Amino acid sequence: MIGINDWNQLIDGIPSLGQLREEKPERFDEIISKETKRMQQMEQEFAELPLLSFLQTINTDGRVQEMHQTYLKLACLGEPGMEWVSRYWYYRNLMIFKNILACLTGQDEQVVIIYGLAHVHLLKQLLTESGEVNLLTLDDIMI
Questions:
Q1: What proportion of the chain, given as a percentage, has pLDDT over 90?
Q2: Does pLDDT of 90 surpass 60?
Q3: 3-class secondary structure for 93-107?
Q4: Contacts from 80-86 at CB under 8 Å and sequence distance 24+?
């Protein structure tokens, strides 16, 4: 099994989440509050469901889209929001994508990638649109 390195580093000149909050505190708190409630719901589901059912529940297109929309909402918090999402969040996912491709060694190789739900939309898009891999989701392999 090969571990793929995450990339999560500070970049000079990119606003922090604290700076995004300073830009529009009420809207930022609203976005984070909604996300906190979503995480609490997922924690409850994790405690109540068998693991496979939990993974299928959280990986629905609707849930993945909701997670991605959180970042798009953060991008709407003025210039700092756009900078953070484009220069940090999208960059981070591009680095993860690059690291995944760098780990592949053969044409018929099969790998399983387990990543945080917030990353699923962008990683799925990048991997699919790259034309470098044949991407199967959990639903694809469970059917």
A1: 64
A2: yes
A3: HHHHHHHHHHHCCCC
A4: 80/15, 80/19, 80/20, 80/22, 80/23, 81/15, 81/20, 81/23, 81/24, 83/14, 83/15, 84/14, 84/15, 84/16, 84/17, 84/19, 84/20
Q: Are 77 and 20 a contacting pair, CB within 8 Å? A: yes
- Evaluate if residue 12 carries a pLDDT over 50: yes
Which tokens is 95 given? Answer: 């680095």
Domain boundaries, the chain: 17-142
**Looking up tokens 């906190």, which residue turns up?**
36
- Determine the Cα–Cα distance for residues 113 and 103; give it in Å rounded to an integer: 11
Let me know: does 5 contact 99? Beta carbons within 8 Å: yes
Distance between CA atoms of 114 and 139, rounded to whole angstroms? 14
Task: Kindly report the number of other CB atoms within 10 A of residue 97's CB atom.
Answer: 20
Give the pLDDT confidence of 20-51 residue by residue, as tens digits.
Answer: 899 899 999 999 999 999 999 999 999 999 99
CA 62 to CA 117: how far, in whole Å?
12
